[in-house]
Every structure is written in structure tokens, then in C-alpha cells.
Design goal:
With 688 residues, the protein is of the alpha/beta class. The protein is 31% helix and 10% strand. The protein contains 20 helices and 16 strands. The strands form five sheets. A seven-stranded mixed sheet has the order 8-7-6-11-14-13-15, sandwiched between helices. Strands 3-5-4 form a three-stranded antiparallel sheet. Strands 1-2 form a two-stranded parallel ribbon. Helix 8 links the parallel strand 6 and strand 7. The longest helix is centred in the N-terminal third of the chain and has 29 residues.
């Protein structure tokens, strides 16, 4: 902010007169000039030129020695969880290349030994040959894109080459590569020229090379001694006031199974999507589940008795915490949960028998889940006071709330005693976020931990509930490593999408490290865990273009070449700006970040996707639930307009919003598939 000089001059002249005012202004100006000159002269006199000012850095989080970090690297590589040619950080200090069954062999290095780094930075590939696919629709079936080939794998090295923001790659260009390389430009390919470098999906062809599938044993002390380093942990900084973790030893890694060997691979590593939800079921998890049915290869287009046993069908496990985050479920919580789901119009359609093999509702119990983590079960109770820790900020929970039973949806406890309104809406008793002013922070913090718990216990991919799937994830399942994605412009994780292998070494590291750091699972803190331990490549930070393509634009980056659609803020999904409002209806689902795997709309829990038709519009098969939801929506509208009429007129197009928002178009597209009016995005019709 700068002073308004003309106004200041006028005020001083008016108050002190022309002559005295000018003298006062001149004196003030000279005083400012002399002050600045004096400051610079004193700096030159008292501050040495070579003075280096300390930069702020986060406190260290590391509790593992180099020797244990090497074991983690060796175990993960041997298990096939590092199908990448990217270098291992030199600070790890490996002396023998780990055997990598997920990477094909490559030519031996011709670099003279004297020029090689003192520690090993590459793995020894013994994997099958990779055949990169030209995925395209074939005439005459060009109306819809083809399903990804079962057993296909995404080469994340290629994806990073075209999508990494750190290398100045644009989201727009990344989505084009993902779109063309995945065959999503069905019948509309206008890009000409050879596009081999854009092929990022491959299948493994052949068998592993003969090799003793043994993790090399490294003596870190001897390795470092040969490098002239006395301290075996040199280069790593231990967490202050913390002891080193006891040496960690892992069981033999699971035998690597090629993703092309579908039945065995599916049995060992089922394709499980996890999602965590607190409070009454709303249109947010409803749309997430619809997007799952619309995009994933769940086999609903086939008769159940004719399903292909060689295809690994994904499943969706929706974990529901029925009460406040700090409450304990009562003995009848499971029964109560299903009773509430049956009576909820947004949830009841997914209890239909047709979906029983692909969508399952699970009851979340914090105590049971933490006791199911071997790395935590004996010690987590010692940290109950810091259980709700997010980024080092601990939310204190009164003891009474910790020991309370589950709260019902009407605000009463298990004994039917209704709480006062102000107590019901405090941070401890909130069940879901109803508005920006009543944000359920405790449940959000609990979900930060829940995603790691679920993926470590059961394996799979966790999705935040504000996520919409946009395409088949087959090749992401094929990539055996762990991943999250980038926090917009920052080199940090966002764990709104998180993939971990069941019982992995990197999972053990994360839980033991979090335990020594107050059970903090905020993604920014997790970024520090892996960075301090040189394990970042084992939890790959994928570009946000794959899962959150609007994020950079909302933070004022890449606006000169944005993707389609162009959002300057996340609210544009729900309130599409008037000057851009022709696009949703004209382009439809195919024009919504095509190429990305999902879209993250960042909260907005309280904003309906379709304010005009705020009910599940799934047709006659689910008409009872629709009537309940329509009655509730119309009753609310009647209260707002003081209209007490109980008769609901037939829908007419004139009642619809003239310019449809993106959220409305996406919701109505998914619902049309369930009603049987349109196939899914791959041209498959739902069979009941």
C-alpha cells in the first residue's frame, strides 16, 4: 500500500498553511531519506558481506537408521513395487543393485568405475519384456473408447515425462497424452504424426529371467567405510529427542506375479477402492459411487452367470463412521447403519442385489482398525490425547466425548437423550460438514489416518469422498508401486488419492514414523517423513493433472493455456460462470477433463450437485427413494417460499435451469446410465 501523496499534500497545506506546510513536507521527506541512508551504512559496517542468513526448515522426523532404510528399499524393489527406471537416492548408500522383477533388463553401463557414484542408484531388472500398446477404437466400433486391456500397466516414467509440473509441463498437454495414449479420443483423432513416445500403457510379455530372487544383504558400515565416512548414518538427521527405532526385519517379499496373470494377481492383490464417510449419506458419496459404476470394469453389462473369470473386477468399500469422530460405536451400530442406509434415498439404491458384488458398506471402528495394524496396536493408546493431530496441531477431545456412544442422526445419544443444539454442533459432536461455518474438522483429521490404515490392512486405493472417477483405472492397478499425487505447485503429497500395497515395507515405515511424530498423517507431514528418509520414490508423487486437473488454474498457474474446462476456482464446478455456461450442456461428460482419471472438487459438502433436481433421479426401479427425497427437497423449497401446497406438479423443461452447470451435467449423465437411457462411457449397457 502506498500513501496518497496529492491528498496528503492537500491536507497538510490546509491545516498548516502554504509556507509552513511546505517546510513540514520537505523536512519529512529529508528525514525519510536520511533514515534509509543510515540503515544501509550501518548494515555495511556491522554485517559481514559473507554473512549467510539461516533459512527456516521443518524439524526432522526421521527415526530409522540408514541400514533399515536400505532394507525397506530392497524389500519394496524385490516385491515388484518399483517398476521404474528412476534412480535410487545416493544417500541411501546401497552397494549392490537390488533385483527388480518389475523392470525389464537393460544394457550394462559402460561408464568406467572411477566415474560411477560411490553408491548404487539403479536396480537390476529381470522382468518380462514390455510391449507398449496402440490403444484405439477400431471401425466400425468408434462411437465409444475401448476398455483398457486386462493386465495392462501404466508406465509412470512416461507419464512423469509428459506431466511433471516441476519440468514446466502443462496440464492441457498432459491430458492430451493421457487421452490419446489411453484411446479415449475414439473416432476423433485429429493429431497427426508418429506418437510412439506418447504410448504409456504396456503389457508384460514373457517370463522373468532366471535369477535367485533374494534380497542382497548390505553391510552399511563397510560400505560407508570404503567411502571414507565414519558415521553410518551420515547424511540423515534424526528426530530431536527421539531414539532410533529398533532394527527392522521383514519377512520374504511376496513372489512377483505379472499383472498379465490375472486370476493369481487378483487373488493376491484385489482391486479395492476405499472411501471414508461420516454422518448421514448425501449426494456426495452417492455421486462417487455412480461414477464408479459408470467408469470401472465391474461387469454390470454381462449376465452374472457369464462373467469372465480372468478379469479382476474392482470393488468399492465405503467405510461409514456413524457418529462423531471421537465417539465409540455402540453394540448395535452395524444394524443401525444398515437401517439408516435402507431409509436414506441417496444410499438405498446401492443396496440393490445387482450391486452386492461390487459395492459394500463397511462399519468403521477406530479401535478395531488401529488394533489391526501390527505397527500400532501395542502403542497407539499411549497417544490417545494426540489422536486428532493434523500438521502438528492437536485437537483436544474432552474425556466425556471420547467415552460416549454413537450419536444418532437426530442428535440424540444411544439412550435417546437429545443434546442441546449448541452442544450438538460443537466440534466434538459434529457429524459431517453442513456448512463452511460448521466444518467437521475432527472427522477430516480422522480420515487422514483412516486412508493409510485401510490401504495398509487391506491393500488398494483410497479416494476422498469429494472425488469423481472419470475413466477406467485398470492400468493404475497394474502399476504395482505406491502413489499419491502432487499438492498443486508444491512438491508435497496430496493423499486425496492414495495407493498402498497390503502389509508393505513402506507402510511399516509410515506407521512407525507417524507413531514417533504424534500420529500425524496430514499429507504435508507425510511428505516430510518420506523426504527425510530418502523414500519419496517408493511413494510416487504423481502429477495432479491425473486426479486434480483444475488445481493449478485455481491458484493462478497455467492460465494462459488451461485445460478444458477452465476453472479459476473450485466453485466453478457447481456455479459455472455465465460466459462459459454453454460448454457443459454442449460438450457433456466427454468435455470434462477428458484424459484425467478423476476429478477432485475440494469439499463443498453442503452444496448440491443439482439444486434444481436435488434427489436421486434413477427411474422407476428406485422410485420410492426418489419420492422421499423429492418430498424433502420440495418441502424445504415450500418453507423458503412460504408455499404450503403439498401437491408436486409434473416436471416440465421450463422448470429446469436454463444454463446447466458442470455438476448438474455430470450427475445427470451417471443417472441416465442407471435408468437405462444411455450406456456407460465405454458403450456398455447395464443389465439388471
Amino acid at each position: 500500500m502506498l500513501p496518497n501523496v496529492p491528498k496528503m499534500h492537500h491536507s497538510i497545506i490546509t491545516r498548516f498553511g502554504r509556507r509552513r506546510g511546505r517546510i513540514l513536507l520537505a523536512t519529512g521527506f529529508m528525514a525519510i531519506v536520511l533514515t534509509v541512508v543510515m540503515m544501509f551504512s550501518l548494515r555495511d559496517r556491522f554485517v559481514p558481506e559473507d554473512r549467510s542468513w539461516p533459512a527456516y526448515s521443518d524439524p526432522p522426523t526421521l527415526v530409522y537408521r540408514r541400514e533399515d532404510l536400505q532394507r525397506i528399499w530392497e524389500w519394496e524393489v524385490a516385491a515388484g513395487h518399483y517398476p521404474s527406471g528412476q534412480k535410487i537416492p545416493e544417500t541411501v548408500g546401497l552397494t549392490t543393485p537390488p533385483i527388480n522383477p518389475a523392470l525389464p533388463p537393460r544394457k550394462s553401463s559402460t561408464i568406467p568405475s572411477r566415474f560411477r557414484p560411490p553408491s548404487v542408484t539403479s536396480t537390476h531388472g529381470i522382468g518380462a519384456k514390455r510391449v507398449y500398446l496402440d490403444v484405439q477404437s477400431k471401425p466400425p466400433n468408434v462411437a465409444y473408447p475401448p476398455r483398457p486391456l486386462s493386465g495392462s500397466v501404466a508406465d509412470m516414467d512416461v507419464v512423469m515425462e509428459h506431466c511433471d509440473f516441476s519440468q514446466n509441463k502443462y496440464v492441457r498437454d498432459c491430458l492430451e497424452v493421457l487421452r490419446l495414449g489411453g484411446g479415449l479420443d475414439n473416432g476423433a483423432r485429429v493429431r497427426r504424426g508418429k506418437m510412439d513416445e506418447w504410448k504409456y500403457i504396456y503389457v508384460e510379455d514373457g517370463e522373468l529371467q532366471n535369477s535367485s530372487h533374494t534380497v542382497p544383504q548390505v553391510n552399511p558400515a563397510l560400505a560407508l567405510k570404503s567411502q571414507g565416512i565414519a558415521d553410518p548414518n551420515a547424511g540423515f538427521v534424526k528426530k530431536r529427542n527421539a531414539d532410533w527405532e529398533p532394527h527392522v526385519y521383514f519377512p520374504p517379499p511376496p513372489k512377483y506375479i505379472s499383472h498379465h496373470d490375472r486370476p493369481a494377481a487378483c487373488e493376491e492383490s484385489p482391486h479395492l477402492f476405499h472411501m471414508f464417510w461420516t454422518g448421514p449419506f448425501t449426494d456426495k458419496p452417492y455421486l462417487a459411487l455412480l461414477s464408479f459404476l459408470y467408469t470401472q470394469n465391474v461387469g454390470l453389462h454381462l449376465d452374472p452367470e457369464h462373467d469372465d473369470p480372468t478379469v479382476c473386477r474392482p470393488k468399492f468399500w465405503l467405510w461409514i463412521n456413524p457418529g462423531p469422530a471421537a465417539s465409540v460405536p455402540n453394540p448395535t451400530a452395524m444394524r443401525d447403519m444398515f437401517e439408516q442406509l435402507k431409509s436414506n434415498p441417496w444410499a438405498s439404491p446401492f443396496l440393490h442385489p445387482r450391486f452386492k458384488d461390487v459395492i459394500q458398506f463397511k462399519l468403521w471402528n477406530t479401535t478395531e482398525q488401529l488394533d489391526g495394524i501390527p505397527e500400532l496396536k501395542d502403542e497407539w493408546r499411549d497417544l490417545r490425547d494426540s489422536l486428532f493431530n493434523s500438521g502438528g496441531v492437536v485437537e483436544k477431545v474432552p474425556q466425556r466425548a471420547e467415552s460416549s456412544t454413537t450419536t444418532a442422526a437426530d442428535g440424540s445419544d444411544a439412550e435417546g437423550v437429545t443434546k442441546p443444539a449448541n452442544e450438538e454442533d460443537d466440534k466434538v459432536n459434529r457429524v459431517g460438514s453442513k456448512s463452511p461455518s460448521s466444518y467437521d474438522r475432527l472427522s477430516v483429521i480422522l480420515s487422514d489416518m483412516a486412508r493409510f490404515v485401510l490401504c495398509h490392512r487391506f491393500g488398494g486405493i483410497y479416494l476422498d469422498a469429494d472425488t469423481i472417477l472419470l475413466r477406467d483405472w485398470e492400468e493404475l492397478w497394474g502399476w504395482k508401486g505406491a502413489f499419491a499425487y502432487r499438492w498443486s505447485r508444491l512438491e508435497r503429497y496430496n493423499t486425496a488419492v492414495l495407493k498402498l500395497n497390503k502389509g508393505s515395507a513402506i507402510g511399516t515405515f509410515l506407521f512407525r514414523t507417524a507413531l514417533k511424530n504424534g500420529l500425524d498423517f496430514h499429507p504435508m507431514t507425510v511428505s516430510r517423513y518420506t523426504k527425510d528418509a530418502a523414500l519419496e520414490p517408493l511413494l510416487l508423487r504423481l502429477p495432479d493433472a491425473l486426479f486434480d486437473a483444475a488445481w493449478l488454474n485455481t491458484e493462478d498457474f497455467q492460465r494462459e493455456r488451461p485445460p478444458q474446462p477452465y476453472f479459476t476456482e473450485f466453485g466453478d464446478f457447481f456455479f459455472t460462470p455465465r460466459e462459459k455456461s454453454a460448454a457443459p450442456h454442449a460438450l457433456g461428460f466427454n468435455g470434462f477433463f477428458k484424459g484425467a482419471y478423476s476429478y477432485h472438487f475440494h469439499n463443498f459438502w453442503w452444496q448440491p450437485f443439482d439444486a434444481t433436481r436435488n434427489w436421486p433421479d434413477l427411474g422407476p426401479r428406485f422410485i420410492n427413494g426418489e419420492r422421499i427425497a423429492r418430498s424433502q427437497a420440495d418441502a424445504k423449497q415450500a418453507v423458503q417460499t412460504a408455499d404450503r401446497s403439498t401437491e408436486f406438479p409434473e416436471d416440465v423443461v421450463a422448470d429446469d435451469k436454463r444454463d446447466l452447470d458442470w455438476s448438474m451435467v455430470v450427475k445427470r449423465t451417471f443417472e441416465a446410465y442407471i435408468r437405462g437411457e444411455t450406456p456407460n462411457m465405454y458403450g456398455e449397457w447395464l443389465k439388471w
